């Protein structure tokens, strides 16, 4: 399914600046130990669902809507700019894409708003600021009439939308995502298709008004899902994709760095019916690995990026009895490593796999709900403002979008708690220094979220030194 960047910790009062790298690192290391004593600061319908694989407290499921016929994709974002996380979803049966307003930020009161539709087969979507005006827009793929449609959030409040056609013929489109493919600072669109393979569309003027199609690989047929990330550590965006008919997981190297030339590299062949795919650092070695799954109950696997260049991979089995239709990777338990969330459509299950040792050597499965029929999508966000990650899911068979409240709550994270251990210490400093320079999201060391780890981030980290408040 379509993916958004992994959950980013909230930031507290970053120092102003556009992320310029005018000042060099050595000059600021001279002042490092003079400020290490600074004190940490930080910004200050229901049923219980049991966890079948642990003694953890039950999650609570809350319905967003039960009237979305054939609920498909669901993601979370603040659509109207009120500071609360809303839900955006597609429903092919009603040929519509909607968003549901989280009225008071508690996740218990919802108002539905239409975005657009009257298209056949609206299934996949992506959310991001396409026109660079500070609000969230929505992109959908439509398999009849094979279009990619951009909905511009006209006034930023989610009540008025302007539809623009990005592509009027991309044969049998599937998953879609938003990312800066050519490195020009504008957000582009990439998508895969059953017949059309893989392509991306350049946001020509950076405002979403003009688009230029750029092919990647039209021979990669029956492509189901894609994920955009820097797979070889060369500071540009590459593409990872799956094919359910070729039974393959591969990635395409952005060889020129601007999206004009691509080189295909195999990650895994013999992956029957390969569908969802996500790239993330699962073994905490600083490079991106890949997790994917076939659809139909065969092995859920992750692939280790051995040398960090994407050329050598080893396969690790996560689960021998879970065929995920959707995957999402984030630090769900906020212990400093990446965990895996999965939606099992055939299993009717929403589950997560805890990265027990933090290095990907052992994962423990926790079933959140094993009775959510036809689960097609899973995503994570803080839906109720209690500083932990909740789970958003959709049920195709139950016509429902719902979210699962994580038991308990967590204190607000410090602005520069890079490793997620609730303290800003020397380990955070070392991670920040190791990430110095261009650092595309998700990048925890990029404290001010400028796309670069630089002097501004170093000063923010030093100003937050110490134990995070509980």
Short account of what is shown:
The chain is mainly beta and 470 residues long. Helix content is 5%, strand content 43%.
Write the layout of secondary structure elements.
Elements: H1 25-29, E1 46-49, E2 59-65, E3 74-77, E4 86-91, E5 96-102, E6 110-117, E7 120-128, E8 137-144, E9 147-153, E10 161-167, E11 173-179, E12 188-193, E13 197-203, E14 211-217, E15 223-229, E16 238-243, E17 248-254, E18 262-269, E19 274-280, E20 289-294, E21 300-305, E22 313-319, E23 326-330, E24 339-344, E25 349-355, E26 363-369, E27 375-381, E28 390-395, E29 400-405, E30 423-424, H2 426-434, E31 437-438, E32 452-453, H3 455-463, E33 466-467
Antiparallel strand pairs: 1-2, 2-29, 3-4, 4-5, 5-6, 7-8, 8-9, 9-10, 11-12, 12-13, 13-14, 15-16, 16-17, 17-18, 19-20, 20-21, 21-22, 23-24, 24-25, 25-26, 27-28, 28-29, 30-33, 31-32
- Please tell me how large the radius of gyration is: 21 Å
Number of E strands: 33
The biggest sheet, with number of strands, parallel, antiparallel or mixed sense and barrel status, is: 5 strands, antiparallel
Mean pLDDT: 85
Low-confidence spans: 1-56
Beta-strand content estimate = 35-45%
